[in-house]
Amino acid sequence: MSYTLINPTTEEAMETIPALDIDQVDAAIERARVAQREWAGLNPADRASLLRRFADAVDADRENLAQLEVRNSGHPIGNARWEAEHVRNVLEYYAATPERMFGRQIPVAGGLDVTFQEPLGVVGVITPWNFPMTIASWGFAPALASGNAVVLKPAEWTPLTSLRLAELGLDSGLPEGLFQVLTGKGSVVGNRFVTNLTVRKVVFTGSTEVGKQIMSGCADQVKRVTLELGGKSANIVFADADVEKAALTAPSSVFDNSGQDCCARSRILVQRSVFDDFMQHFEKAVGALTVGDPTQSTTDMGPLVSRQHHDAVSAYVDAKTPVAFRGSAPDGPGFWFAPTILTPESRTDRCMTEEIFGPVVAVVPFDDEADAVALANATEFGLSGSIWTRDIARALRVARGVESGNLSVNSHSSVRYNTPFGGFKQSGLGRELGPDAHLAFTETKNVFIPTTEKD
Ligand code: NAP
Ligand code: MG
After folding, report:
1. What gap in Å lies between CA 389 and CA 403, rounded to an integer?
2. Which atom of ligand 1 is nearest to the CA of 153?
3. Could you list the residue ranges forming a coiled coil in this record (predicted)?
4. Which sequence spans correspond to the domains of the chain?
5. Ligand approaching nearest to the C-alpha of 182
6. What single DSSP character describes residue 157?
7. What is residue 454's predicted lDDT score, i.e. its pLDDT?
8. Is 156 a catalytic residue?
9. Does ligand 1 lie within 6 Å of residue 190's CB atom?
């Protein structure tokens, strides 16, 4: 079985991709199990060196990976180049892990007590279509670095960069079968990672709905799970902030990747006294966005990923919710959607509570600090957010008060390979990236050796 990819910019048919069945998935998992033994048996310096070679191969292939993402996902080339470089950085960062898999020596009576971080075995990584290669690397790089094998199931719509990364891994000298990309349906390939006993952990990034199914499925085998799910993050602008700067940077915080970003600040909360001022600057900034051909380095925003997703996003712009203004979008073929600014009358309007995952943002006023924090927290999600204020004490109070995993003050940054990333509440479980991520791919083993007759 197979299916055909569609270029979201041109709507032209592209590559045909195999849709694997359960037997093929099981065979791949068995190959991964064998390869993992070999990999874990190598000396740590050799594993580190192979991962560095993998990072170098990605480095040499950055432009090709970026161009693949432009074709497959419609990401603007500037974004796609950053993504390819990020994958290289993630690999390079975790290449230091094999030689630093330290255990502990714990003082106990009568002997030596030490801990080891043992690999889990085979890890299944399931990725979404919005950031195919970066999110894949957050799973496979630390998992491989801790001595595991990885089977990766990319989203059906966007497998090309993942397939290329597996080729680069093999070319770099990773054992055959250690890192395999298995294409096909989530309900078949992804679900098999949940039910196959050899897979000891599932790392899932995607919708909260499917994440809950994965978590309950994994419970059956007490299988380890990391979940990175949806978001409905708040960008909070206080009256004492640099309101103009907050407004001019707001488009990138929600329209980057056409809003198909789990960290999108899709609710902008503005203190009432500066609301109009903010909206004026914001309108100017949205008007200045270049929406169009993703192959051009001057493009800020490309198309949505698919016709189906375009339909889903469109459903949020209806007659019921006031539209303050919209940006531009090309006509003709391609899944284009103009940046759209909604000003809902009710704080419980669905544009305030549901993740739209497109270039649609809701802007609402708030009264004071307590109101802002309560409104920011009035969601089942808790992934990211931004706080704009010149009062450093307020910035810290609000940062501690917002129930979210990744916050930035007077900026919109959220993902760095060297800092932890993940969600509160229904935005996820566990953390990826940063200095500790590799530990989530290990079990802690405690060993006691007596040094006296009596223990
Ligand atoms: P999705 O529908 O949940 O799919 C994610 C992945 O899971 C895809 O590979 C999908 O395969 C697979 N899948 C679907 N059903 C499955 C099942 N029953 N068992 C196992 N795997 C299954 O999510 P999406 O629509 O691709 O992505 C959008 C969502 O991802 C948004 O909610 C967004 O917030 C979230 N996201 C979160 C983060 C984060 O780090 N927190 C990052 C990016 C995206 P198919 O392609 O075959 O459907
Ligand atoms: Mg889906």
Report:
1. 18
2. 9
3. none
4. 2-229+427-447, 234-409
5. 1
6. T
7. 67
8. no
9. yes
**Does residue 383 line the site of ligand 1, with CB under 6 A?**
yes
pLDDT tens, residue by residue, 122-173: 999 999 999 999 999 999 999 999 999 999 999 999 999 999 999 999 999 9
Out of 2.30.40.10, 3.40.50.1860, 2.60.120.10, 3.40.605.10, select the CATH number for domain 2-229+427-447: 3.40.605.10
As a whole number of angstroms, the distance between CA 153 and CA 126 comes to 5
Q: Would the pLDDT of 380 be above 80?
A: yes
pTM above 0.85, yes or no: yes
Cα separation values, 175 from 50, 57, 150, Å: 10, 15, 12
Q: Is 218 in the pocket of ligand 1 (CB under 6 A)?
A: no
Gap from CA of 441 to ligand 1 centroid (Å): 21
Distance from C-alpha of 438 to C-alpha of 440, rounded to nearest angstrom? 5
Task: Read off the pLDDT band of 364 (50, 70, 90).
Answer: very high
Tell me, in angstroms, the distance from the centre of ligand 1 to residue 371's CA.
33
Question: 178-220 pLDDT, tens per residue?
Answer: 999 999 999 999 999 999 999 999 999 999 999 999 999 999 9
Closest atom of ligand 1 relative to the 428 alpha carbon: 41
138 lines ligand 1 (CB under 6 A): no
Ligand nearest to the CA of 213: 1
Kindly give the residue spans of alpha helices, DSSP state H, lying in 318-403: 350-353, 369-376, 392-401
One of 69, 83, 156, 228 is an active-site residue; which one?
228
Closest CA to ligand 1's atom 48: 186
* Contact in structure between 149 and 42 (CB atoms under 8 Å): no
Nearest protein CA to atom 34 of ligand 1, as residue: 230
Sequence-ordered list of residues with C-beta below 8 angstroms from that of 124, at least 6 positions apart, any chain: 150, 151, 152, 153, 190, 193, 194, 199, 201, 202, 203
- Residue owning the nearest CA to atom 9 of ligand 1: 155
- Residue 172 has a pLDDT of 98
Asked whether residue 455 carries a pLDDT value surpassing 80, the answer given is no
Residue from 69, 156, 218, 262 carrying the catalytic annotation:
262
The pLDDT tens digits of the residues spanning 87-99 come to 999 999 999 999 9
263 is annotated as an active-site residue: no
- Asked if the domains at 2-229+427-447 and 234-409 fall in one CATH topology, the answer is no
Q: What is the pLDDT of residues 260-280, one digit of tens each?
A: 999 999 999 999 999 999 999
Pocket probe mutation, ligand 1, options 199, 223, 225, 262, max atoms within 8 Å of Cβ: 262
CATH number of 234-409: 3.40.309.10
Comparing CA positions, the residue from 294, 231, 239, 303 lying closest to residue 264 is 231
